[in-house]
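We treat protein structure as text, and this decision shapes the records that our systems exchange. Such a record has a labelled line for the sequence and another for the backbone structure tokens. The record that follows is passed on verbatim for readers who wish to inspect the format:
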Amino acid sequence: MPVVSLLDNDFYKFTMQHAVVKLFPQACVKYRFINRGRHAFPDGFALELQKAVNSMRLLALAGDEKRFLAETCPYLDPIYLDFLQGYRFDPAEVQISQTGSDLEVHISGYWYRTILWEVPILSLISELFYRLTGQPEPAADDVQIPAAHKIGKYAELGVKIAEFGTRRRHSYRVHDLVVATLEQQDVSAFIGTSNVHLAMKYGTKPIGTHAHEWFMFHAGKYGYTMANHTGLQNWVRVYRGDLGIALSDTFTSENFFAQFDRMFAKLFDGVRHDSGDPLAFADRTIAHYRQFNIDPRSKTIIFSDALNVEKVSRIADYCRGKIGISFGIGTNFTNDVGLPPMNIVIKLTDVQPLGGHWTEVVKLSDEHNKYTGSAAAISLARQVLQLD
């Protein structure tokens, strides 16, 4: 079950990689797999995962894939696309081990190289887990009928939906069936997918901007008090107003809005919500725009936190007419096949911006159970940011 394409990855990995190549080519980083769901991995799992990771060294950007990126994403520099055409995964950057039912995965190396590992490794872990624990592969109808039903419901709600489910999909086959179904439906709701390979395959739009690691790195390089500000500023340096949705909860939305000043509020198209109460976040975002005399209806919140039809309906009813809204649906599309979805992540843990010592980094979401980092590092970050 090898990864089928270099582009079988989330779009924001490529947009961040583009920015890293331009701004931080010397930076090194470390990532670690976090088994939030405490899943018990069967004997031999690490060996099978290693085989799949090793096979990724053969992936290369094809000519038609490069043309797709050039035509669809004009903000990606030609020199970056040339770099990506020459890029190859190096399995030596990934260390995989298993003790009993516990799986360890660590990634380390230059940030511009290692940034592409996270999403495909998570998708491989998820697909291998179901296969090696003897779970049956769902029939096509059991994937396509629910997906068609859901996108129909979203169309009835009058909302815009993007598919965000690469990382914890049941399998590549299920993911492919879902995106094919969404694209084939005669509805206005589906606007694209975060998976670049499937966006190209089905002629839809690749969706994404940046992830938590972008701001986590900036915290390690510039300090927590400047992380959001310098992260946003550097994003603007690279994209000049394109890809204008800002992620809000790397160090709590409270800290984000304190640094999301008039310039950023005017320049960015909107913000992404990924943790905490979505309705409270909507109220805070609307109030923030109003204090700068910006009409919230000219801006957008993209909600992306564990969404389903019921939650989207509640958010849409609350926000309609107050601010623009859109939704990124992940696991509820790509791993809704009657089996418990996996709760797994890979997160940045340490950064080395210019050589020398390593600096531990953390994530402080609006939900404490989504924090990452050691207790000591989390405590220090909260103290520095005056969140206690």
